[in-house]
Amino acid sequence: MKFLGIISVALAVLAQQATFKSGVDVVTVDVSVRDGGKVVAGLTAADFTVLDQGVKQEIGDVTYGKLPIDVTVALDVSYSVTGPQLARLRIAIGQLMHDLGKDDRLRLMLFNERVRRVVDFTSDAKKVEDAILRATAGGATAVFDTLSVAMVSAENPDRRQLVVLFTDGADSMSFTDPKTLIDVAHHANVTVSAVLPVAVNTSTIRVNLPPAMTEHLKVYRQLAADTGGVIVPLAVRTDVTETFAKALDEFRSSYVLHFSPKGSDAKGFHELTVTVPAQPKLTIRARKGYFAQ
Amino acid sequence: MKTLVAVAFVIATSLVAAQQQPPVFRTSADLVSVPVSVRVTGSPVGGLKPDDFLVLDNGVPQKVTSLEGEAVPADITIVVETSRAMKDYLGSISDQVAKISAMVRPTDRLEVMGVDTYVEELLPLKPAAEQPALGRLKVGGYASINDAMVAALLREPDRERPHLVIVISDTVDSMSVTDMMTVRDVARQSGSTLVIAWVTMALDVGSWFTSQEREGAYIDSVGSRSAPRGRHWNPHHTPRAGRHMEEFAPLIEAAENSGGALHPPGVFIDRSAAAIFNKLFNDYRHSYILRYTAEGVAHDGWHEITVTTPKYPSYELHARKGYLVEPPRPPIDRDKLPAGSLLALLAAESADDPAGVDRTIAENRSNADLLKLLNDFKAGGNAFPSSPRKEFVLALELAETALPLSYAPVKAAAYDLLTRYAKLVRQVSGEDSFEKDWLWAQLALAEAPNRPADAQKLVDAALKKFPAEPRFLLARAIIADQARTAKDSKAVLAAYDAAAADPSTRDEALVRKAMMLVRMSLYGDAVAALDQTGAIADDAMLRYWREVIRAKAFDAMGRFDNAITAYRAALAVVPEAQSARVGLMSTLVRTGQGGDARVIAEAIQSARADAPDPWWSYTQADYRFFPDLMKRLRGLAK
């Protein structure tokens, strides 16, 4: 089964930001580097250029694929997610558990109008599978509220944080508005990707969704772009299991850059730019910035 | 909005309802109103008195008790064909409608419907002076003229205003689901006057007039459905006499029975819509409204009306040909009802067994079963002759189950049920309180699914009966808010202000107005509106909404400390409410208080499964009152 055609597009990318502590502050940025669809390995600190508010930064350290991962799966169980769809997602999430590394963990959140964590971060695949089997669909859809809670609660500087949203519809019940959601994302340390029921051609996301969903798709796309995540189109015949596996693998195959910001204003939002100057044709994906308090 | 299928379905169900139980023609006190136009040698005749008229009702002379002339304000519906056939005439239709709007009196109300393949409300019914300019019209598609005429004629008339429907088209209907005979039948039972003006005449139309016939004729003659043979405008064209006009006999009958007329091409030199309307409305404007109380005739059934001026035999009179009075519904013979859901439902209601009612409805939750139950209920007679209010309570129970479903026929059947019973409720209530509560319960059901187009008709009808009822005024504002586009904002705000004038609805009107102002990014105005509310001591849900909306406004203004205070105030009302927790969490994290934010995030994720959140009820508006209303109605129905 195809993985839709976004392999040539930058895949799940990591970015982590550190909140300033005190004294020496270190910012952590997850960076995905691809040449076409292939992972580019073997880069060092000297290969990267990081600009913080346009000021070039000295990269203190680069690691590759070493930090453990916390994956939060936010699964839509509202009225519109019917039996076959939910069943596919159940299978895929179960498989995802088996693809995690020995130090990785998964948290399962289910939402309709209500946001619930049914399984806290765990490596216990059976616990997750049992929770999914018990899930039933019904109610309205509070996507924005769920994402806000997921991002705020996924705070652990020693682990990389990925939130994967699965929803089939527009938000119908959230108290959180899109602007606030994006703001929260800028303050959080999380990469957000979304698996959505969109069709795709090779260069654009072609949407065949109702108008409300089309509007909210723009929000999901901005959220993904600003946090270094991706939109994963889920057509009817897509192998969801393979989709999850690929997304996780891409997330894992990223560099983590560390630097202590110098020469930039300490407060507010810091726009980041990451490049590999010697190879300008590489596809670099990293979060767009971080908030300094 | 364009709703071909919905209009067709509503037309179909309304016609079925009309055939089974035709609407009462005029006021419940058997006062009959008859618009009459009087002309001599083509000019209107004014100055007539009641004694100048002889009115026969089923052949029995009646005494005209009042006569009104030019002062009676009218409702005018203009139906303009915008199919491709009209492209030569529609370039200036916006100007035409503006001219027409200028012709009507300030007290008249005007609406404009456009029809091509779809029937579309271009301008809703409003005082002519308040109508905005009609935007540029798109011309194209086929012509569903019959459907449009039926839709216009089925509009619930205002008892105090004559309703004039003017149709401007080019003759040929090519897409309707209804035919001319249906137009004739609906016009007969409608309270409206139908005037049809053809601006052109398609050549060789032959048998193209009925939707059943059109397919063969079009395909055979031109090889496709989309290309009529051709037409031309000849202002002096006289239609072929005899056979040709006979084919339009049902339409002619429809117009004349209603007191109107069909004007073929050739009558008008100037083919502009404004010129046509000017002539038609001059006739209508100089009409009289005769009123009489029918005496000496059987109450029920069709009443043939004849109006003459015996002293002036040369005068030419146009009046509708009659009206229909609905007979009382016969009681259901339950012994003859087959065992099944309807019988079980009626038995449970008779026994004052709400649980049994709920159980029976729950057993029929599939779309097909529920649709059958709704239709069986509507088709049945008076189910509770000794306690007629029970039937109205049961209608609400059924509608409550049907409205949230996505299956369109079930939803339409539920709205039809509510509309029908809204008309009947006064006959059985005996006093205002049951009727008011019933209408409010009906509005509560209509607001919840957020379908303002359907709810609008119900609230308009409720306000006609009780124009000053504050709950209905608030419902109108809420429905307008649900429906609004950017250009409607002022009107919606004004509607909330109107609802805020009464102490019983003031606080909720101000809270909802504030939320609307937040959505319009007028945050300061939103806070100001909330500051005008009172203590709201007896409505915790409303108090909660006020605080979270206040918090939202402050948050958007960057006044984060105020926002946090407001969120905490909301949580003081409902401590576990997810919405206030989420709002507070988001504000804390954005103000550098991540640790406190994470504590709240944890509380959200681990909240108990039944923790309440009033925010989830906000968009359902009055539905939060529905359980108590039903309790009250059941008590009044015993």
Can you put this structure into words, describing what you see?
The complex is a heterodimer of chains A (293) and B (638). By secondary structure, chain A is α+β, with helices and mostly antiparallel strands. Chain A has six helices and 17 strands. Chain A has helices at 83-99, 125-134, 143-153, 178-187, 211-227, 240-252; strands at 27-35, 38-39, 49-52, 55-57, 59-64, 69-76, 105-111, 115-122, 160-166, 191-196, 199-200, 205-206, 231-233, 255-259, 268-275, 283-286, 289-292. In chain A, the strands form four sheets. Chain A has a six-stranded mixed sheet with strand order 8-7-6-9-10-13, sandwiched between helices. In chain A, helix 4 links the parallel strand 9 and strand 10 (191-196). Chain B is an alpha+beta fold. Chain B has 24 helices and 17 strands. In chain B, the strands form four sheets. Chain B has a six-stranded mixed sheet with strand order 8-7-6-9-10-13, sandwiched between helices. In chain B, strands 1, 2, 5, 14 and 16 form a five-stranded antiparallel sheet that branches. In chain B, strand 1 (31-40) and strand 2 (43-44) form a beta hairpin. The longest helix of chain B has 22 residues, at 408-429. The two termini of chain B are 42 Å apart. Residues 1-29 and 202-243 of chain B have low confidence and may be disordered. At the A-B interface, strand 8, helix 3 and helix 4 of A face helix 20, helix 22 and helix 23 of B.
What is the structure about, briefly put?
Chain A has six helices and 17 strands.
Secondary-structure map:
The complex is a heterodimer of chains A (293) and B (638).
Chain A: E1 27-35, E2 38-39, E3 49-52, E4 55-57, E5 59-64, E6 69-76, H1 83-99, E7 105-111, E8 115-122, H2 125-134, H3 143-153, E9 160-166, H4 178-187, E10 191-196, E11 199-200, E12 205-206, H5 211-227, E13 231-233, H6 240-252, E14 255-259, E15 268-275, E16 283-286, E17 289-292
Parallel strand pairs in A: 6-7, 6-9, 9-10, 10-13
Antiparallel strand pairs in A: 1-2, 1-14, 1-16, 3-4, 3-15, 5-14, 7-8, 11-12, 15-17
Helix pairs in contact in A: 1-2, 1-6, 3-4, 4-5
Chain B: H1 4-20, E1 31-40, E2 43-44, E3 54-57, E4 60-62, E5 64-68, E6 75-81, H2 93-103, E7 109-115, E8 119-127, H3 145-153, E9 163-169, H4 180-189, E10 193-198, E11 201-202, H5 211-222, E12 231-232, H6 243-246, H7 249-257, E13 261-263, H8 273-285, E14 287-293, E15 301-308, E16 316-319, E17 322-325, H9 341-350, H10 354-362, H11 367-379, H12 389-402, H13 408-429, H14 432-447, H15 452-465, H16 470-483, H17 489-499, H18 503-519, H19 523-531, H20 540-556, H21 560-573, H22 578-590, H23 594-605, H24 626-637
Parallel strand pairs in B: 6-7, 6-9, 9-10, 10-13
Antiparallel strand pairs in B: 1-2, 1-14, 1-16, 3-4, 3-15, 5-14, 7-8, 11-12, 15-17
